């Protein structure tokens, strides 16, 4: 179904709407490795069997690190990160996005790329901090990963919007600590509604799939109304 398709040629610049923007390339390598270290720390804390002395020492070390950054300069909450694809297209997402924010250690290490067959693709490995049933990924996180991939597929086609409706089917248990493939694409548009579909696969088999209706942002002058 494609009615009134007209994707916007270029995404709106968030700065025109009062939001700060940082380029992905401006994120210091030291911050990227700090984020990776904090992710490992969260997993280690979640499963540690260390004794009281080691735990107290670790707490003090973490408190010292928090104090080091605590009073320093911070980006505003709504800050967006700009990514420029190889073909010159520009994309924006929130810097601390809960599912794929590049500086958010609470987010899985998800980086969606354009797929040769169209749409987006990513590979991600989820550690024990994303656990639901024993050894398996929590269904809420699977829904969040699908939602992000679905929203990003619409953004990649120049149609940023909000999720109005999300349907998820869990087909097979999704294991932790193993590569998962996520794919997503736009399947149709109708006025401001963008239909999108996404899958999560393990070993080539679909374990979860989702469809959504993203309603395009109704921004003055972007043709989205
Ligand atoms: C600020 C400028 C920034 C520019 C930045 C540039 C690019 C990047 C920007 C953003 C990035 C975006 C996404 C990135 C990826 C993220 C993935 C995560 C996504 C989320 O985490 S997002 C959070 C959760 N999400 C919400 O927080 C939405 C809350 N909600 C609402 O804000 C409203 O509810 C809204 C806006 C959805 C609609 O409201 P509205 O007033 O604008 O529009 P309206 O009601 O007229 O609906 C228009 C047409 O959608 C149909 N429709 C509406 N609702 C429907 C439903 N539930 N099911 C089926 N169809 C539905 C109607 O039936 C009508 O259809 P029709 O054309 O056929 O009449």
Q: How would you sum up this structure, described in words?
A:
The two termini are 19 Å apart. Strands 1, 5, 6, 7, 8, 9 and 10 form a seven-stranded mixed β-sheet that branches. The chain has a three-stranded mixed β-sheet with strand order 2-3-4. The chain is globular, with a radius of gyration of 19 Å. The chain is of the alpha+beta class and 225 residues long. InterPro entries: HotDog_dom_sf (IPR029069), THEM4/THEM5_acyl-CoA_thioest (IPR052365), Thioestr_dom (IPR006683).
Tell me the helix content: 10-25%
**Which sheet architecture does the biggest sheet show?**
7 strands, mixed
The N- and C-terminal alpha carbons lie at a distance of 19 Å
Output the helix-strand order: EEHHEEEEHEEEE
Structural class: alpha+beta
Q: What is the approximate shape?
A: globular
Number of DSSP strand runs = 10
Total helices: the number is 3
């Amino acid at each position: 179904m494609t009615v009134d398709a007209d994707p916007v040629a270029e995404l709106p610049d968030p700065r025109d709407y009062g939001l700060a923007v940082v380029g992905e390339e401006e994120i210091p390598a030291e911050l990227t490795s700090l984020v990776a270290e904090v992710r490992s720390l969260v997993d280690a804390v979640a499963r540690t069997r260390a004794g009281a002395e080691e735990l107290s020492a670790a707490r003090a070390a973490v408190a010292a690190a928090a104090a080091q950054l605590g009073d320093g300069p911070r980006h505003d909450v709504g800050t967006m990160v700009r990514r420029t694809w190889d073909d010159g297209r520009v994309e924006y997402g929130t810097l601390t996005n809960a599912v794929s924010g590049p500086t958010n250690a609470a987010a899985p290490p998800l980086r969606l790329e354009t797929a040769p067959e169209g749409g987006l693709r990513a590979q991600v490995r989820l550690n024990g901090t994303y656990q639901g049933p024993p050894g398996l990924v929590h269904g809420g996180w699977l829904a969040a990963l699908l939602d992000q991939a679905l929203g990003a597929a619409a953004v990649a086609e120049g149609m940023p919007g909000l999720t109005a409706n999300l349907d998820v089917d869990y087909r097979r248990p999704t294991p932790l600590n193993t590569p998962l493939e996520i794919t997503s694409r736009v399947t149709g548009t109708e006025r401001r509604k963008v239909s999108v579909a996404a899958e999560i696969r393990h070993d080539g088999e679909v374990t979860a799939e989702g469809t959504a209706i993203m309603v395009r942002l109704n921004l003055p002058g972007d043709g989205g109304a």
